[in-house]
Amino acid sequence: MTTFKSRLQSDLTTAIKERDELRSATLRMTLAAITTEEVAGKTARELSDEEVQKVVAREAKKRREAAEAFQSGGRPEQAARELAEGEVLTSYLPKQLSDEELAALVAEAVAEARAGGAEGPRAMGAVMKIVNPKVAGRAEGGRVAAAVKSALAG
């Protein structure tokens, strides 16, 4: 078992013992999503720490999107619950890049892509290939794409 997944399971056990309903429910749903990911496909496999982290990030994003939907649907109490669950999951993710840090990484990648011959808006794919490994879960894909677009446009 990966260390990240075992940490989630031990935290779940602690949350259950402390009768922390929010934390235990959130961790249960996340561990279920991890298990689903492990058995998806033709053969069952164990996920690496990076893959488990991606599942946790995906679950956190789902909570943010659900909170926005509930808020716009006039259900603030459900939106607050989703936001709280998202905060629990965010505590397991690496610190997110600030806008300035992301812009600096994107600027480096754009310069590197231009040195390789990629120019203008069509260089988006080349720049994304360079910047994605550097970002590696510390910024959401939409934020990265928006930063790359603005850097290429201006």
Helix proportion of residues, in percent? over 70%
Span of the ends, CA to CA: 46 Å
Q: Can you summarize the main beta sheet? A: none
Mean pLDDT: 87
Shape: globular
Name the helix and strand elements from N-terminus to C-terminus, one letter apiece: HHHHHHH
Number of E strands: 0
Q: Please, could you describe this protein's structure?
A:
- The chain is mainly α and 154 residues long.
- Helix content is 75%, strand content 0%.
- It is built from seven helices and no strands.
- It has helices at residues 3-17, 21-39, 49-72, 76-90, 99-115, 124-135, 141-153.
- α1 packs antiparallel against α2.
List keywords for this structure.
mainly alpha, 154 residues
List the helices and strands and how they pair.
Blueprint: H1 3-17, H2 21-39, H3 49-72, H4 76-90, H5 99-115, H6 124-135, H7 141-153
Helix pairs in contact: 1-2, 2-3, 2-4, 3-4, 5-6, 5-7, 6-7
Summarize the structure.
With 154 residues, the protein is mostly helical. It is 75% helix and 0% strand. The chain has 7 helices and no strands.
